[in-house]
Structures are given as C-alpha cells and as structure tokens.
Specification:
alpha+beta; Alpha-Beta Plaits; 7 helices; 4 strands; about 20% strand; binds 2'-deoxyadenosine-5'-diphosphate; binds magnesium ion; nucleotide-binding; metal ion binding; Nucleoside_diP_kinase_AS; magnesium
Length: about 140
C-alpha cells in the first residue's frame, strides 16, 4: 500500500467538549501525520454542499444543522494506507457498533453526534481536501 492522504473533521460535539487534542492524539498514535489543520465554522450552504451525497436521506437536515452548531477542526492526515487506517481508528458510524479503542467508541454521543468524519475512498479524499485546503496549506 502506498502513502495516502485523507480528509478528517473533528465534529462539533467533540470540539465543544475540548476533545480536539485527544482525538488528534489517536491519529498520531496510529501513525497518521497531521499535515494540515484548521479550526473553522461552516455556513449552512457549505455543510449542505459537503454532505450533498446524503441530501435525500431523512437525517440530512439534522446532520447539516449539527455540523454548523459549533466550530469544527478540519485536517489532512497522511500515512501508509491512510484512508482505511483512519476509518479503522474512527470506528463504526454508530458508536454502539464501534470497536473498543476507537474514537467513536470512546467519545461519540450518538450516531449523529459521532465526533469525527473521515473520507471513504481516494476520490472523495481528494475532493474533500480540495474543498477545504489549498495546496500551500498542506505541509508534509
Ligand atoms: P460515516 O460518517 O461513518 O462515513 P455516513 O457517510 O454513512 O457515515 O454518514 C455521514 C454522517 O451522517 C454520519 O457520520 C452521521 C450521520 N448519519 C448517518 N446515518 C445516520 C442516521 N441513521 N441517523 C442520524 N445521522 C446519521
Ligand atoms: Mg461517510
């Protein structure tokens, strides 16, 4: 497997509870290097665009409102097999199904307020990184 980059969000439920550092530590412990990081607050339009793939799902409105409710921390993670490795460290979408030691098992509050986002494939990783960062902001 090659070195990859993936896109991560530390979500409002986590920034609100001062879990930014604890979650970043999980990435670093797993061998993922944080090559870009910034704290921002999304507009509703940005949240709707970012989660556009879910626009027909019943939870879409709730998801977008949650994502704009507090600041988030957007990051680019780099490492061997970074996309799959990050999904592993995150744990299952629903914290009730997440494995022990994963971020969602330890920190998530519910399936909606589940502390982190991570890209699911190389194409989405590239799109999501480009949505939030310019090339100059990525420092490997
Ligand atoms: P993931 O974030 O694990 O990639 P996803 O892409 O299927 O999961 O969904 C995106 C986000 O939408 C997820 O992190 C939380 C929210 N979500 C998904 N399923 C949900 C549900 N059944 N009820 C409420 N929110 C949900
Ligand atoms: Mg997803």
């Amino acid at each position: 497997m090659a070195i990859q980059r993936t896109f991560s969000i530390i979500k409002p439920d986590a920034t609100k509870r001062n879990l930014t550092g604890a979650i970043a530590a999980k990435f670093e412990e797993a061998g993922l290097r944080i090559v870009a990081s910034k704290r921002i607050q999304l507009s509703l339009a940005q949240a709707q665009t970012f989660y556009g793939v879910h626009s027909e799902r019943p939870f879409f409105g709730e998801l977008c409102e949650f994502m704009i409710s507090e600041p988030i921390v957007v990051q680019v993670l780099e490492g061997e097999d970074a996309i799959a490795k990050n999904r592993e460290v995150m744990g299952a979408t629903n914290p009730a199904d997440a494995a022990d030691g994963t971020i969602r098992k330890e920190f998530a509050l519910s399936i909606g307020e589940n502390s982190v986002h991570g890209s699911d494939a190389p194409e989405t990783a590239a799109e999501e990184i480009a949505f939030f960062f310019s090339g100059l902001e990525l420092v490997g």
